[in-house]
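Appendix B. Extra example for self-study. Work through it before the problem class; the solution is given directly after the inputs so you can check yourself.
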Amino acid sequence: MPNKKKTWKQLLYRDRYLLFMLLPVAVYYLVFCYLPMTGIVMAFNQYQVGSGFAGIYTSKWVGLKWFKQFFGSIYLGRLVRNTFLLQFYSLIFGFPIPILFAVAVTQVVRNKNARKVIQVSTYLPYFISTVVVCGMINNFLSPSGGIINQLLNKIGIESINFMNLPQWFRPIYVISGSWQSFGFNSIIFVAAIMGISPDLYEAMDVDGANRRQVIWHLVLPSIRPTIILLLIMSLGTMMSVGFEKVYLLYNTAVYETADVIQTYVYRQGIQSSNYSYATAVGLFNSVINFVIVFAANKISRRITDTAIW
Amino acid sequence: MNSKKSIRKKEFHGTAGDIIFDLITWIFLLLAVIVCVYPFIYVLSVSLSSGQAVNQGRVVFLPVELNLEAMKTVLNYKQLWISYGNTFFYTVVGTTCNVIFTCLAAYPLSRKAFCLRKQFNFLLAFTMYFSGGLIPVYVVVTKLGLYDSRLVMIVPVLISAYNVMICRSAFEAISEELFEEAAIEGANDFFILSKIAVPLIKPTLAVLTLYYAVARYNDFFSAMLYISDSKKEPLQVFLRRILLQASMEITQTTNLNMGALAQSTIQVRYVCIVVSVIPIMIVVPFVQKYLVQGTMLGAVKG
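Solution. Structure tokens for the complete assembly:
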């Protein structure tokens, strides 16, 4: 049938099994992703707790009231700053470490088993739950019996109540985050370095290059595309801080540096039942995220020909 | 394989500078390993030491005055096992459903001839970049009557779009001829998926199973939002009470005086960490090679 295009009906019939497979998946996405998207309308009306499901769409329209309230509050600046800075410091501090680690482990460790042991032990923390990681941080840093303060006491420094001092929140968050993920994040760089042709190493060797020259002129240039791609992809997450970790680590004493948009949405919405206001703040965050990811993707497409979509 | 071998075989005629460089790098690597492993060893050692040794700060690396009291106290506490059992259930059932539905989503989206492929792929990708946000999802889930239901730990987190994309590229990598032949033989898509396509992407499915299983095992967020009944709570919620909310529920069950109580609190916490981390510590080293494949899959999916 060279010239005859199938009609939609025929196509749908031909693909009926595929459509049937997608049915449960489509229902899932409809109910848990797209239905909530329509719930965004709550950001523009006055939803009351207990007004039922229909209330999402039929509550009294208030326009931009909640947005005005948020933009006029002291929270806007603080939340945006905290959200951005936590991610920004995590990126600045956390991004180079996996690369350094990958270069070190591939260039210096010759024994395959030694390399495996080193790698496995560094990505164990990645698989530990946020609750346990936060529990360890909290207890290690505790002024009563935490190992860090015990050590500080031994060298003559008074105990520091880390978890209740705003200036400590960001370092704690960033360092523990990097601790948890550097090993896992290095996997992709290790794989990229392993993909470098041995001929190139040999050529460098013939030229009498030393270790630093090999790394500087061969290894790093070879993994540059991977580095750029991952950097751009992480730029896309600039305004989306993981809710769980902040929520589990912070307390009222450190809100000043710790409170992020997501935790504020949670407190306002779920704990204080200001559903509409919290939806508005959440929407503000979603839109910013969308714009950032979109921009990151555009840049990625231009520079590396690799887009996330 | 050959290529890797030749890198390693390459004799290294190092200058003095290279030797110093290697030395510094080794120190850096050892430091990295210590930083990652030591906290766990410390936690284990504290939980196996005597309360007195812990209190006096004498436990630094290995257990001091080996003592299993704290361990026994925790292991005898019923709620630990209730929450552990719940987590086991959520992980096994949840992961199974995750993998099945991920395949069901990825397979049609990978078929080049599928008439709605573009549209569905867009709808899938869109959910990765925009969501209704916490509150609308919360309202929908609770209005569906899922609050405090075991299903809430499974159904709202049924499919991850990112994992569907990984699975989709694995299906796309299978030779088209195989599908054509099967279709000519009269096999329908369910048969092709289960008997031909799935067996061919087993390594990818292993990675996805791992990712999903770890996510289900560690899921705290869903439980915090939707589970209030302690009979249904997963391990992570229990751990949060003990580790972060200073709950004395375990130590209260023992007849200790106040001093001993304070001593054993930190030990009880560390035992809880040990007990909860063990399954992960056992599984991860065995799946190492899949992990490497997994991150590569993520990287090439674009």
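Self-check: The CA atoms of residues 134 and 248 of chain A lie 7 Å apart. If your reasoning did not lead you there, revisit section 3.
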